[in-house]
Amino acid sequence: MTAYLLYPGCSMEASASAYADSLSAITNALGLEFQEIDDWNCCGATEYLSISRTPAYALIGRNLALAAAQANGSRTVVAPCSACYLNLAKADHYLRTDPAMDAKVNEALGAGGLSYEPGSLAIRHLLDVIVHDVGLDAVKAKVTRPLRGLRVAPYVGCMLARPDYDDRMSDHEYPTELDALLTALGAEVIDFPLKTHCCGGHMTQIGPETAYELIRRLLHAADQFKADVIATVCPMCQLNLDAYQQATNKHFGTRYRIPIVFFTQLVGLALGFEAKALGFGREMVSAREALGRIGVEPPPVDADTKPKRRKKKEGLPMPVMPGDEEVEP
Predict the structure, then answer these.
(1) What are 172-219's pLDDT values in tens digits?
(2) Beta-carbon neighbour count of residue 192 at 10 Å?
(3) In the structure, what pLDDT confidence band is assigned to residue 301 with cuts at 50, 70 and 90?
(4) Which of 7, 132, 184, 204 is a good FRET partner for 103, with 20 to 30 A between their CA atoms?
(5) Cβ atoms within 10 Å, residue 25
């Protein structure tokens, strides 16, 4: 077993629970061991960095400091979420290259009895670890249910391959790591030209029309190549393309019905795990038809498992995503 420190991030406990479950299912099978960082906090997502750099990097740096203090033999932090990965890697990079920022952040960390030496940890994305540490040959050798007949669009998103401070990906504009992994699983991987284009991020909340256009482009490209599913490596990408697909269709008068799944779910299917254990059935756009193409029994539909959004009498208004129901508290 190869041990790593795990920074799960907030989404894995909520909207990306299928990501968390599928990762948990395949961990032992791939010979990996993850030790979750104790008392980790939110990475700040994206907006915080544009408001005030010092507290933003101190917020991220706290996670790095906790990881460094907890490290027992492993100095590698793995982040499944692309936004979390980018924030952790960005903080480490800027603390290494900006001594003044490093001093400010460590002063802030010191108030909590913590400190961090920039560069003392390796920050890596889960895809990178599976492809380069486990290895494609090792993954292929463990496949018991090849994904033959499943056409997959490999969607990496805009945050994993750029800026890629340590040059871990094969190319900044057209990385092929996800393609190679899906091919090792037996899937038919389409040539997806928009694989590093943005999904819109939080524009779904700020400027929906802009977000819908970005989402439409990705769905259109996948549809043109007759993809059965889009495989993603990021909770934000999965959420936008899945939860806002119906709203995008309504906005443009289109009829896209493309399931958006996490790459770990496809790894789990190829390794022989049951669909329910991998979180299938929680996606907004059902993957039932896609599962049927590879002879996998989809999990039963259980309406009670879908969370219902409560109406808030106070606080900021929150969007109602397609499929959500508002209920009185």
Answers:
(1) 999 999 999 999 999 999 999 999 999 999 899 889 999 999 999 999
(2) 24
(3) confident
(4) 7
(5) 19
pLDDT digits (tens, 9 = 90+) for 214-242: 999 999 999 999 999 999 999 999 999 99
- Mean pLDDT for the chain? 91
Peptide bond into 329 cis (omega under 30): no
CB 202 within 8 A of CB 188: no
Residue 67 burial by Cβ neighbours in a 10 Å radius (0-12, 13-18, 19+) = buried
| Cα distance between residue 187 and residue 154, in whole Å | 11
Tell me the percentage of the chain whose pLDDT exceeds 70. 91
CA 86-107-102 angle, to 5 degrees, is 45
Q: Give the pair of three-digit tokens for residue 119.
A: 């560069």
Q: Where are the beta strands (DSSP E) in the chain?
A: 2-6, 32-36, 76-79, 122-125, 151-155, 188-189, 229-232, 260-262, 309-310, 326-327
**Cβ–Cβ under 8 Å, residues 101 and 53:** yes
The two structure tokens encoding residue 186:
């037996």
Whether pTM > 0.90 for this model: the answer is yes
**β-bridge pairing 2-6 and 76-79:** parallel
Which own/partner contact pairs does 48-57 have at CB distance under 8 Å and 24+ positions apart? 49/87, 53/101, 54/101, 54/104, 54/105, 54/108, 55/108, 57/91, 57/94, 57/95, 57/101, 57/105
The domains found in the chain, sorted by start residue, are: 2-125 (1.20.1050.140), 144-305 (3.40.50.11810)
Which residues contact residue 326 at a Cβ distance below 8 angstroms, ignoring those fewer than 6 apart?
A: 308, 309, 310, 311, 320
**Rounded Cα gap, residues 118 and 102, in angstroms:** 8
Strand order across the beta sheet in which 76-79 lies = 32-36, 2-6, 76-79, 122-125
Span 46-59, mean pLDDT?
83
CA distance linking residue 107 with residue 286, whole number of Å: 49
Q: For the chain, how big is the Rg over CA atoms in Å?
A: 20
Tell whether the torsion through CA atoms of 238, 18, 171 and 192 is positive or negative: negative
